[in-house]
Amino acid sequence: MDVTLTGETRLFYIVGDPIAQVKSPPALTAILMKRGANALLVPAHVAPADLELFLQAARATRNVDGIVVTVPHKLAALAHCDEPTERARFAGSTNVMRRGADGRWRGDNTDGQGYMDGIAACGFDVAGKTALLVGAGGAGAAIAYEILARGAAHLKVHDIDTARRDRIVGRLGERFPGRISVGDADPSGVDLVANATPLGMRDGDPLPVDATKLAGTQFVADVITKPEISPLLVAARALGCAIMPGAGMFNAQAELLVDRMLGMETA
Amino acid sequence: MDVTLTGETRLFYIVGDPIAQVKSPPALTAILMKRGANALLVPAHVAPADLELFLQAARATRNVDGIVVTVPHKLAALAHCDEPTERARFAGSTNVMRRGADGRWRGDNTDGQGYMDGIAACGFDVAGKTALLVGAGGAGAAIAYEILARGAAHLKVHDIDTARRDRIVGRLGERFPGRISVGDADPSGVDLVANATPLGMRDGDPLPVDATKLAGTQFVADVITKPEISPLLVAARALGCAIMPGAGMFNAQAELLVDRMLGMETA
Lengths: 267, 267
Fold this sequence. Notes:
Two copies of one chain form a homodimer. Chain A is of the alpha/beta class. A six-stranded mixed beta sheet of chain A has the order 2-1-3-5-6-4, with helices on both faces. Chain A has a six-stranded parallel beta sheet with strand order 9-8-7-10-11-12, sandwiched between helices. The model of chain A has no long low-confidence stretch (mean pLDDT about 95). Chain A folds into two domains: about 10-110 and about 250-260, Leucine Dehydrogenase, chain A, domain 1 (Rossmann fold); about 110-250, NAD(P)-binding Rossmann-like Domain (Rossmann fold, 3-Layer(aba) Sandwich). The first copy, chain A, is about 35% helix and about 20% strand. In chain A, helix 1 crosses helix 9 and helix 5 crosses helix 9 (about 245-260). Chain A is built from nine helices and twelve strands. The interface of A and B includes residues 3, 22 and 62 of A.
């Protein structure tokens, strides 16, 4: 790809473990170039035990302007943001950090916005509707916040890690009282079924919900980008459901991430 | 410039303070690309107080394969090499580090080789000749080692920091007994006059040697790349001396650096 690379180039990292599979370096660098920035997004492969050291050094590297955070670091990275957005605080995780002009680091989470923008681009409006979200990790928490922030009537959250699930239901219940509760693997009755777990990436994974209880009137969305159409979405499509694959979230999110990388205010 | 940039891209840093002026990121990345590597050399602006933190984090970043080190970090970086070359140890500084397959970091110093390769490319062979070197910092020490390693009959070293000068004369005197001594700003009588100080970069700098004592039969070389022809070289050229500007060193060194970045054995 055609990039600007000089001694004056500003650096952004995408930090994860593993990292080789990420598609953001060329995709987001292309957007940075389109916007006229002399800046690159480069991959950084960092183990969880080394994340704190990496972030401290990134702060001390004066031409590093920001960091995109991916699995498994999104939750841990939040603690390194001097000023997280409300969205990031409620999600309990951050996927993009940016150094402010005052040297303090802002942190936001665009996972929920990207996911819901992707669903909206498929013609589904969550306002006033009901939803079941499976997976209460970093991305799941961000999506849960965004579903409620966009006016869903009610959200049920399911996660086999019940402590993690209960934390999110409790925290978002304070912010959106009466509109969030604990769910299970039965998707019956809701308008939107949203997967935010990695289930479906590996052969032999169970489906995140009981697909025999899906109905063709439901919208089914997935975070998974590999395979392109997850087993859950294959089953949903066979029943006539409208679907959004993970690529929809990724594409909607790319411009949002570059917005935050080039400037972020949290006030 | 046209580069490969993916999640699998291997990273190299050039670390310095300041960093905006360096030309290596595009020059060395172009060589990396030409050799078929999916790898970038990106600038990292790190203050001296943060160098240790930066190097620790670079070691912990699994897709970082090596680091090019520039002013003012070349001396401090040597302490972070698990296995420095003899050349780096005698120079007391390193300008290129590389992670070995065993995870240990090798360190070399190509400044002297680049400088002397550049001079050789201008047709001057230092073997059997005498030389005056001005500047006993990181680059100066590397150049001093290389002048002697290439068979110079005698080398004089001048530096206003006499402690630094004496350290190099002492250390290289053990390795090349009887062939190195303390010099001064008078360049009379030697075959090669080599500047390794920054004098000449700023308006009003004094010349590193007494140019009124230069003779047209001497070869005069400089590390300075800005201005392209330093005031010392302007004076030398006016007297009929053959010269090598800093760009000669830079060009000769680019391929050497990429050799070390892509694989370095110190045994």
